[in-house]
Amino acid sequence: MAVKAAVCRAMRLKSAIWVKAYVRRCAVNGAMAVVARHGDDDAGAIFIKIMRRDGLSTLFAPAPAGRDDADFDRRWVACFSGRAVSAEEADAHMAREVRFDSDIWVIDVEDMDGRNFLGDDLVA
């Protein structure tokens, strides 16, 4: 009797679990994070809006699949070429994303210094 080797395939953490952990990471670091839009619990794409002291925001979107292990780990790219934009411009961008995919999450983070708490998961 032949024994088949088990193939272990990494699976991406469910969106709801990742969001809860990210909101906690923000709180531990002294930033206020709220779920502005609740997406699909299992596989909804997550967008993060960082609101800074100067009234501008930076927006982070999921990295395209196949880029830097984005198929298994969550990776992020900065929208607007990484520049900070007005809250209205960031919100308009998110409104377009929601029209395209109604299952997305939006996390609003208020951090006076503009920290994103994404660490090494941010790709260029």
Beta percentage is 15-25%
* Second-tier CATH architecture: 3-Layer(aba) Sandwich
Gyration radius from CA atoms, angstroms? 16 Å
Q: What is the CATH domain class?
A: Alpha Beta
Q: Give the domain tally.
A: 1
- Main beta sheet: 6 strands, mixed
Instruction: State the end-to-end distance.
Output: 50 Å
Structural class: alpha+beta
The helix content is 10-25%
CATH superfamily (homologous) name: Protein of unknown function (DUF1491)
Overall mean confidence score, pLDDT: 86
How many strand elements?
Answer: 6
Instruction: Tell me the overall shape.
Output: globular
What CATH calls the topology is hypothetical protein tt1805
Uncertain stretches of 5 or more adjacent residues: 1-9
Number of helical runs?
2
Order of helices and strands: HEEEEEHE
Account of the protein in words:
The chain is an alpha+beta fold and 124 residues long. The protein has a single domain (33-121), classed as Protein of unknown function (DUF1491) (hypothetical protein tt1805), CATH 3.40.1530. The chain is built from 2 helices and 6 strands; from the N terminus they run H-E-E-E-E-E-H-E.
Describe the SSE topology.
Elements (H helix, E strand, L loop, with lengths): L14 H14 L3 E6 L8 E6 L4 E7 L13 E3 L6 E2 H14 L4 E6 L14
Descriptors for this entry?
single chain, 124 residues, alpha+beta, hypothetical protein tt1805, six-stranded mixed sheet, globular
Brief digest:
With 124 residues, the chain is an alpha+beta fold. The protein has a single domain, classed as hypothetical protein tt1805, CATH 3.40.1530.
